Amino acid sequence: MPSPNQGGAPGKPGSAPKPSPVIFAVANQKGGVGKTTTSVNLAASFAAAEYRTLLVDCDPQGNASSGVGVRRGSFELSLYDVLIGHAALKEATVATEVPLLDVVPATQDLVAAELELVDADDRATRLRQALRPQLDGYAFVVLDCPPSLGLLTLNALTAAHRVLVPLQCEYYALEGLTHLMATIDRVRSAFNPELTVEGVVLTMFDGRNSLTHQVADEVKAHFRVFDAIIPRNVKLSEAPSHGKPALLYDAQSKGAQGYLSLAREILDGAPAAAADQKKKQRGDAEAEPQEEPPPPPTTGARARDARPRS
After folding, report:
1. If we measure between CA atoms, which residue out of 124, 109, 174 comes closest to residue 308?
2. How many CB atoms lie within 10 A of CB 31?
């Protein structure tokens, strides 16, 4: 039987269909709001909860890759090779030191991919075509988007099932959120009708600042906002320099605990497919018992409705 880290063999005729993974795009065209930090730590939190997870670095800066210990020069193939058709997704997938967490790394070559694909008829669906057929065994996929609404972000939104929006509580963030929602609506209409907004996660939250609370209240009045809040935290800032998610760098830090709470909040509302995938992984692992990592804390309730209120 395959281990939890492996995809299963194709099902026999008449067998139950395999559950499909849930694909999250972590997106916000505004820079510095915590997209990569959220992508890395949410993916690590899913893996800590024993869900096999794939992190896809869609940002030419490659920070999500280095954030899980995959340094530039340590791999031969990247997302660029996948998008231009030179490699299959599995060929570019790299294991990380976090059990059950893999990554498809990125390099500066992704900038060239945007230019090379600009005239391609399928330029908006390249990632979807490369990604979805090769996710056997994964329960969750997290796509780290660049800070723009360009072709790479468009590909991520077209490939995803849900969008997670990190938001720093400052005035300009509200304007950016409006533009992002308009883009999501256009992508939903043109390329991906199943795309939904999972919710807004408040990042770099400083409760001592009155503007922080004002912006948070304004966002909550119009959008779905998670109960889990990611505070300003030194450990979250230090962890990437060590090539580790905060969960490995300092699991007891407020930042790590915030992302564990966010993962639990999402898992509380996860579809049956993800739960079935985890059950299958546990069944496969029975032949080779291993120590179970502790599940994320149960703090946080399900987030409110994703649609803007009228």
Report:
1. 174
2. 11
Threshold 0.85, pTM exceeds: no
The two counts, helices (H) then strands (E), for the chain are: 12, 7
> What is the full DSSP assignment across 73-133?
TS-S--HHHHHTTSS-GGGG-EE-SSTTEEEE---THHHHHHHHTTT-TTTTTHHHHHHGG
For residue 285, pLDDT over 60 is answered with: no
Q: Are strands 162-168 and 196-203 parallel, antiparallel or unpaired?
A: parallel
Strand order in the sheet with 196-203: 94-95, 101-104, 53-57, 140-144, 22-26, 162-168, 196-203
The per-residue pLDDT for range 243-262, each reduced to its tens digit, is 999 999 999 999 999 999 99
Bridge partners of residue 123, in order along the sequence: none
Contact indicator for 136, 5 with CB cutoff of 8 Å: no
